[in-house]
Amino acid sequence: MSDINPFENALKQLDEAARIMHLDEGMHEVLRTPKRVLTVSIPVRMDDGRVKVFIGHRVQHNDARGPYKGGIRYHPQVTLDEVKALAMWMTWKCAIVDVPFGGGKGGIACDPKSMSEHELERLSRRYAYMISDIIGPYVDISAPDVYTGPREMAWIMDTYSALKGSISPGVITGKPLNIGGSKGRTEATGLGVAFCVREGAKKLNVDLKSARVVIQGFGNAGTYAAKFLKQMGASIIAVSDSKGGIFYDGKDGLDVEALIEHKTRTGMVRGFRNAREITNKELLELECDILVPAAYENQITKDNAENIKAKMVAEAANGPTTPEADEILFKKGKLVVPDILANAGGVTVSYFEWVQNLTRDYWSYEKVHDMLEGKMVTAFNDVYRTAEEYKVDMRKGSMVLAVNRVVDAIKARGIWP
Ligand code: NAD
Predict the structure, then answer these.
(1) Of the candidates 49, 134, 125, 61, which has an alpha carbon nearest to the alpha carbon of residue 93?
(2) C-alpha 88 chain-centroid distance
(3) Is 100 helix (H, G, I), strand (E, B) or coil?
(4) What is the third-level CATH fold of 188-337?
(5) In the 3-class helix/strand/coil scheme, how is 266-335 assigned residue by residue?
(6) Would you say the CATH fold of 188-337 matches that of 6-13+34-170?
(7) Model's pTM, two decimal places?
């Protein structure tokens, strides 16, 4: 874990973009400050009869381009500064993929692994009640994040609908399919990563059909990135999870479908047929064309950046590369596809889910897939062009593009009164 305060980090990124694009001071100040911050205390009757109070937050960073959008995180280490940073990053992510949303985020400091399903339901419903005055399908739309999923989204949607007296699926995305979820939402982040890798490979003149890909983390984002990259013709030569990594350099790389089956059965990637076991450190430094960090933050640091051999790093995870490592990779000519672009497939399909909820018109998987492809390819090229124009790396390019779009919207609407 980084000891840098995440909000300080988010502000530094914004300040750097502001410097590069000569942003005027007033606009810069507007963007540095979240529009609304709500902290609530959530009393929950636990299964043993005691009442425990949890602290939750909902931060609304900016809504110039549309309703606030962002997930809800349940984790013991949730802090207000973390939620503020995540809300700001959502503003940029939505602007990059050009969906009409601003940025928001929610979080509750709790340990969901030690709570029963009934306790989690009471926690989620009370939290939904406490923030119900400031959320809504045209105001602020939540989604899953760390340790929350379709089950929690269904409870929150149901509570909000009960309070407002009408069914309101558009108040939250990432819902189960039978109550308004979208086809293709589960695999959206990994598929978005694969589209970015494909576009990046074109820029580097790397033929995806002969490309060797290494993936760190084999959860939701990593598994689907592996699956779709394999479908696009790449060879996945190494993957890892929290229990260790595997490497197989034979023809066509790992059999991803069989590996998913192995992981589902045994709970780990280790022990997969014909593959050699490797450490996380070895995995990151393997000879390959494309590296996809899809686990946690701060994996590529000043200590290992010099040893990264991949030509492209596509950040499925949030914050896997430290700023020092970023500089080193840029100097070495590596193409880093930044997290706010590479993993934006999830929020893009969340937007599709919201559109389907508001229109009550549900789309086929093929339509979601094609629409996501269009959004991700356009976003990749917009960021690439901005980076070239400002002669910066793609991370800074993505920030400049996003800040520009948000500032344009603020200026068009004007400052009232
Ligand atoms: P997940 O919990 O499904 O998967 C995480 C994976 O990382 C697991 O396979 C875990 O075993 C592995 N892991 C943990 N520690 C590791 C280590 N030291 N070395 C190697 N692997 C390790 O989570 P996810 O939803 O796939 O999210 C992964 C990353 O992608 C996170 O940074 C998340 O914020 C980001 N992300 C995910 C989504 C999404 O829609 N799932 C969207 C945007 C960003």
Answers:
(1) 61
(2) 13
(3) coil
(4) Rossmann fold (3.40.50)
(5) HCCCCCCCCCEEECHHHHHCCCCCEEEECCCCCCECCCCHHHCCCCEEECCCCCCECHHHHHHHHHCCCE
(6) yes
(7) 0.96
Distance from residue 317's CA to the centre of ligand 1 (Å)? 6
Nearest Cα residue to atom 35 of ligand 1: 317
Ligand 1 near 241 CB (within 6 A): yes
Average of per-residue pLDDT across 343-364: 98
Does the active-site annotation cover 105? yes
User: Does the beta carbon of 382 lie inside 6 Å of ligand 1?
Assistant: no
Collapse the DSSP code of 347 into the 3-class scheme (helix H, G, I; strand E, B; otherwise coil) and give the result: helix
Looking from the CA of residue 320, the nearest atom of ligand 1 is 32
d(CA 234, CA 252): 8
pLDDT, tens only, 274-313? 999 999 999 999 999 999 999 988 899 999 999 999 999 9
Q: What would the mean pLDDT of 141-159 be, rounded to a whole number?
A: 96
d(CA 10, CA 88): 7
Distance CA 152, CA 176 (A): 10
CA of 8 to the centre of ligand 1 (A): 23
Compute the distance from residue 336 Cα to the ligand 1 centre, in Å: 18
Class of 6-13+34-170 in CATH: alpha beta
Q: Where are the domains of the chain?
A: 6-13+34-170, 188-337
Does residue 298's CB lie within 6 angstroms of at least one atom of ligand 1? no
Tokens of 145: 């994040």
167-187: per-residue pLDDT in tens? 999 999 999 999 999 999 999
Catalytic member of 12, 52, 84, 105:
105
